[in-house]
Amino acid sequence: MITSDTAVITLNQQLEQAIQAYVPAGIELDFNIPTAEEAPASPTINIFLYSVQEDLALRSSVIRQYSPSSGNMDPAYVNIRCDYLITYWDSSASTNLSAADSQSMMVMNCVLNALINTREISGIPDSYTRVISPSELHGLSTFWQALGNKPRLCLNYSATVPVQLTNANENYTAVGTFDTSLENIKQ
User: Fold this and answer.
1) Dihedral of the alpha carbons of 134, 150, 154, 5, in degrees to the nearest 10
2) Which pLDDT tens digit goes with each residue over 17-30?
3) Distances (CA, A) of 32 to 40, 44, 115
4) Domains, the chain, with CATH or none
5) Cα separation of 74 and 76, whole Å?
């Protein structure tokens, strides 16, 4: 079996930790698709990963390094963009936005602060994160209609992470070696 890169799983775990550090105790985090029919029993932040795709805007050429000890090239990577729709759900009436300081507004403010203060994903070097505009999420109204629910306050969050390509053990024979020790250099 070929081992898969776990950058997307690590991203989910780091995102969960970052948000949990900012929100009040007693608020659950959920990565499932939100459903209007089943209101959560307790206040819940839904972190729905709705799109995973290659981030062509961040396509970069990387020089693969050769390891003489193994005879292999270091694996290359592809930048993968993960797009999330983050919403707050509560079974009570406190999810309405009729007050400037409603429970929903306060929780989503905490989530926003968690996201903008977590620009670097721990354990994933060269990652890139951003809070994106709703125009990037095509068909937001269709999404809410599919859920049979009224639109609600949401954040669109995007993170690009490098995912290593499978190293097919490309073995290259070294052309030769060069001894650079001082005693072997003749003057």
Assistant:
1) -90
2) 999 999 999 999 99
3) 12, 11, 19
4) 7-172 (3.30.2000.30)
5) 7
